Amino acid sequence: MGLISQTVHNGGRHVLGVIPRALLPHEISGQTHGEVKTVADMHQRKSEMAKHADAFIALPGGYGTMEELLEMITWSQLGIHEKPVGLLNVDGYYDSLLALFDKGVEEGFIEDSARQILVSANTAEELLKKMEEYEPVHDRVAPRQSWEVDQSLESTQSGET
User: Contact 82/73 with Cβ under 8 angstroms?
Assistant: First the structure.
């Protein structure tokens, strides 16, 4: 991720890295590029990323990458956000995951329209083009406003402003 953030930052764009406090010694291995925000935990990290991101792109990675990818897909399905969620399928790394999603549609566990939440491509250029053209076509479980109202109530009840 360091090379990507450096490239984006050097291109004059804003870069925000969100890191849970416990992972700070493991994640920051050298020079940072852009802004780094430290948060309490992984849930807060994903919440901050969702709040500030224009879109989400997953590169080949491990369980953490896949968990974050699935959560952003789920949040889109629930109506929490309408941002594009992209998967860069380098050298077919995610072929079996994409096949699993297709099997979920075939078996009736995933709506075909919800399957369209995830945009995938084999090259960065193709992925960015698809993400720029992305329009949500799935039925949201709840409208975005419902989530915003619930979040405001939660913040008020916990004493946050």
Answer: no
Structure tokens at 157: 């009840």
Under 8 Å CB-to-CB from 115, ≥6 apart: which residues? 101, 102, 104, 105
β-pairing verdict for 118-121 and 16-20:
unpaired
Interior angle at CA 89, CA 108 and CA 61, nearest 5: 95
Residue extent(s) of CATH 3.40.50.450 domains in the chain: 55-136
Q: What is the pTM of this model?
A: 0.79
Query: In this structure, which topology does domain 55-136 adopt according to CATH?
Result: Rossmann fold (3.40.50)
pLDDT given for residue 147 in this prediction: 63
Determine the straight-line distance between the first and last CA of the chain, rounded to whole angstroms.
33
Q: In whole angstroms, give the CA distance from residue 56 to residue 5.
A: 14
Taking CA 43 as the corner, what is the angle to CA 65 and CA 136, rounded to the nearest 5 degrees?
65
pLDDT of the residue at 11: 75
